[in-house]
Write a structure and sequence with these properties.
This protein has one domain (2-91): Alpha-Beta Plaits (2-Layer Sandwich). It is an alpha+beta fold and 103 residues long. The radius of gyration is 15 Å and the shape is globular. The longest helix has 16 residues, at 16-31. A hairpin with a 7-residue loop joins strand 2 (36-43) and strand 3 (51-57). It is 33% helix and 32% strand. The two termini are 23 Å apart. It has a 4-stranded antiparallel β-sheet.
Length: 103
């Protein structure tokens, strides 16, 4: 399993409606992608980065297959017009604690 995390800030004075439409389109694409497990989005309560979006995939290969699609590449280019300080991180399970620990 792999988690793909995007963190970013918004450009000042962005068109929030246009951004929301684009974000929904990206989420929709993931929902129908092979190997997709789940998606989470968070807003930072203390400042920058403003947003953290995390998608969970069966494998790195499944994520790569999705990310290389021309439609996703086009969407990503448009996405960059709304954000700054974009950081993408790929996370895998810890060898010491591979599963969540819950009460």
């Amino acid at each position: 399993m792999v988690e793909v995390t995007f963190t970013y800030d918004f450009h000042p004075n962005i068109d929030e409606k246009a951004y929301a439409i684009l974000a929904k389109k990206a989420t929709s694409m993931m929902l129908s992608a092979e190997g997709f497990i789940e998606f989470r989005a968070h807003r930072n309560m203390t400042g920058s980065p403003h947003v953290r979006r995390t998608s969970v995939w069966v494998s790195l290969a499944e994520w790569a297959k999705f990310a290389q699609q021309p439609e996703f590449q086009k969407l990503t280019a448009e996405f960059r017009t709304y954000v700054t300080n974009l950081n993408v991180m790929l996370w895998g399970p810890s060898p010491i604690t591979p599963d969540p620990i819950r009460a």
